Amino acid sequence: MTRVLVVEDNADSREILTLELEAEGYEVCAVGDGFSALEAAARFLPEVIVMDISLPNLDGLEATRRIKEQPELAHIPVIALTAHALTEDEARFRAAGCDAYLAKPASPETVRQVIQQLLSAHPTRPQMP
Fold first, then answer.
1. Cα distance from N-terminal residue to C-terminal residue, the chain
2. Does 56 sit behind a cis peptide bond, omega within 30 degrees of 0 on the bond before it?
3. Labelling 67: which of 7, 18, 43, 47 has CA 20 to 30 A away?
């Protein structure tokens, strides 16, 4: 079962996305802030992360940077999910380590499609020591 970490501070959005992904057969861990994202990524070891950018305490860009700095997590593709969807924003997301981005509101179907594209591009996870 594919594991997806959903990082979204809006409880309703987090719950809707979690329910939709679970209905499609994904195992989902959902958290509401950047620090929880760091902990969950290390513990849950997802195949993909859906990361809101505007988060309390530690924003999604910094959380992504910190995840990508850890050798055991760096391979995990990150989808930036954000209300910031200007051309210059994409460059900031990519520089932080995001592999894709979606503008809010993004339908659960669109999120699933991007997850599948990233999983196809990153089909295997490195072996853990």
1. 21
2. no
3. 18
Asked if the structure places residue 96 within a domain, the reply is: yes
Which residue's entry shows tokens 């809006």?
A: 10
Residue 57 within a domain: yes
Q: Are 38 and 63 in contact (CB under 8 A)?
A: yes
95-100 contacts at long range (C-beta below 8 A, 24 or more positions apart): 96/61, 96/62, 96/64, 96/65, 96/68, 97/64, 97/65, 97/67, 97/68, 98/51, 98/61, 98/64
For residue 31, the enclosing domain spans 3-121
How many structural domains are present in the chain? Answer: 1
127 within some domain? no
CA angle 60, 66, 70 (to 5 degrees): 140
Exposed/middle/buried for residue 68 (C-beta within 10 Å: 0-12, 13-18, 19+): middle
- Here the CATH number for the domain that contains residue 72 is 3.40.50.2300
For 73-108, write each residue's pLDDT tens digit: 999 999 998 887 666 787 888 889 999 988 888 888
Is 126 among the domain residues? no
